[in-house]
Amino acid sequence: MTTTESAAAAPPKIADREQVFVGGRWVESTGDEWIDLVDPFTEKKAARIRSATTEDVERAVQAARTSFDSGEWASRTMAERADVLDEIASRLESRVEELTPLGVIEVGIPVAVSGPTQQMTAGLFRAVAAVARDYSTRDDRTRADGGVSRILKEPTGVVAAIIPWNGPIGTIAFKVAPALAAGCSVILKTAPEAPLSPSVFADVIGELTAEGKIPDGVVSVLCADREVSETLVTNPDVDHITFTGSTLAGRRIMSLAGERIARVSLELGGKSAAIILDDADLGHVMQSLPMGGCMQSGQACIALTRVLVSRNRHDEVVEALKGALGFLTMGNPWEQTTFLGPLAMERQRDRVESYIASAKEEGATVVLGGGRPAGVDHGFFVEPTLIDGVRNDMRVAQEEIFGPVVSVITYEDEEEAIAIANDSIYGLSGAVYTADLEHGFEVAQRIRTGTVSVNATIIDFTVPFGGYKQSGVGREGGVEGLEEFFETKTVHLPATG
Which residues form the Aldehyde dehydrogenase domain (predicted)? Predict the structure, then answer.
């Protein structure tokens, strides 16, 4: 692994956000609490944002409830709402230069990666708009008695969209875009660790609300701590909660929502396996697997953190992975040549280091990394880490680490590889590497996970994405993601004549 350091490349000055965004407008908060955002590279305060109070949440919910019940937004056609999504996309696109440094400061993503990531958000809004234009909310079916039953799709209502810190602007597109396309009103609750890029989204919504393109009350954007956020989940005027984050938090949200049988969509954690079959081309594997395991310094739920290899090919795979991961550039995220930046916060670094320590205690061997990079005296860094001799019952193999830590697990035959891949509470992503694509497809069908790539690490959120087991409930992306925000109503009409 190489490191980069430069005094010339430095973060820009970020303005504080002194108000809360309720119902399409920036307004004064009912409280005086602030959330400080710490730059993960400099370890200094970068900005602060006003923390929403319980009263602010209630104001946002009531604004959403009033706007939805008025029917002004929901009564527009799908095409009309799709036009607004395209407008949001264009305005976000015009703000890429503003959004790019925020990705670095919020998540630690290197600037060279942050730019394309922010640009992708506009594409996701446009993709949802395209799906919406082709989507029919009515299907007439003739019954056996000669009558007609009309199957209608109606918006789920007031949506609480709760997003994580590791991909704030992109997750907005996964949740808010389809919710708006369906005709819902939305309260977007951002993570305290990453409030700035959602505030730029709020600016866009504010412009469109002021211009009358989005009605008053349809969108609120709030940042709040856990206690205040739970009042959003338990509010009886919230019809649907959609959440992305840890499985632990997802369990809590589902429990709270279950008390009043509120609709819930969850995209949760992962512990994805990459199965390298004996006929796989190792050079091809190394083109995608290192990135698949260490994207965003491992701060991604879809990261391929378990590498399954046969005993026959174990040594060569470990050696190749060691070389590939060691080649990744880590350091100053403002340098264009940096591939891996710091972790988003100090507690995350501590968490990752504790998992590496536990792997050693359980008998595994760290063959690369395992500590903080040499030559970098600040920043919440953990080196790309490769751990060998991992058993699938170890904590490092069973629990989501959210850092650049890849574990190698040895299998005896293909059947055992599949069994190991499925031996997890998670089921979000995965990969199969083989010279035979059709056989790779057959193996993929046997892995209990929501997405599997064959011979690649393919990331495409315009098609269905979501998890099995404790990786979530529901899907995001494509027509399936849009349908999460519809209720189905059947209206029976009698036969005539």
Answer: 26-491
Put the strands of the sheet holding 158-162 in their side by side order. 25-27, 20-22, 219-223, 185-190, 158-162, 240-244, 263-267, 472-473
* 334-344: pLDDT as tens digits: 999 999 999 99
Contacts of 13 (CB under 8 A, 6+ apart): none
Give 103-157 as a DSSP string: HHHHH---HHHHHHHHHHHHHHHHHHHHHHHT--SEEEEE-TTS-EEEEEEEE--
Distance between CA atoms of residues 269 and 279, nearest Å: 30
For the stretch 42-51, pLDDT in tens is 999 999 999 9
Structure tokens at 154: 């109606």
267 belongs to the catalytic site: yes
Mean pLDDT of the chain: 95
Rounded CA-CA distance 272/72 in Å is: 43
What sign does the CA torsion over 243, 246, 247, 253 have?
negative
Q: What CA–CA distances, in Å, run from 34 to 8, 18, 101, 162, 466?
A: 31, 9, 21, 19, 34
Q: How much of the chain is in helix, strand and coil states, percent to nearest 5?
A: 40, 20, 40
- Alpha carbons 108 and 264: distance in angstroms, whole number: 30
Q: Please identify which of the residues 87, 106, 267, 383 carries the catalytic annotation.
A: 267
Cβ-proximal residues to 399 (8 Å cutoff; 6+ apart), any chain: 271, 355
Per-position b or e across 346-364, b if 16+ CB within 10 A of its CB: eebbeebbebbeebeeeeb
**Per-residue model confidence (pLDDT) at position 13:** 85
Please give the CATH topology (third level) of the domain spanning 10-268+472-489.
Aldehyde Dehydrogenase; Chain A, domain 1 (3.40.605)
Which is nearest to 484 in space by CA: 470, 472, 469, 496?
472
Beta-bridge partner residues of 431: 274, 453
Backbone angles phi, psi at 198, to 5 degrees: -60, -25
Q: How far apart are the first and last CA of the chain?
A: 79
Mean pLDDT of 13-21: 93
Q: What is the DSSP letter of 168?
A: H
**How does DSSP classify residue 290?**
H
| Cβ neighbours, 10 Å, residue 480 | 16
pLDDT band at 7 (very low <50, low <70, confident <90, very high): very low
Task: Give the tens place of pLDDT for each residue, 463-494.
Answer: 999 999 999 999 999 999 999 999 999 999 99
Please state the domain extents for the chain. 10-268+472-489, 272-460
Give me the CATH topology for the region 272-460.
Aldehyde Dehydrogenase; Chain A, domain 2 (3.40.309)
| C-alpha span between 335 and 34 (Å, rounded) | 31
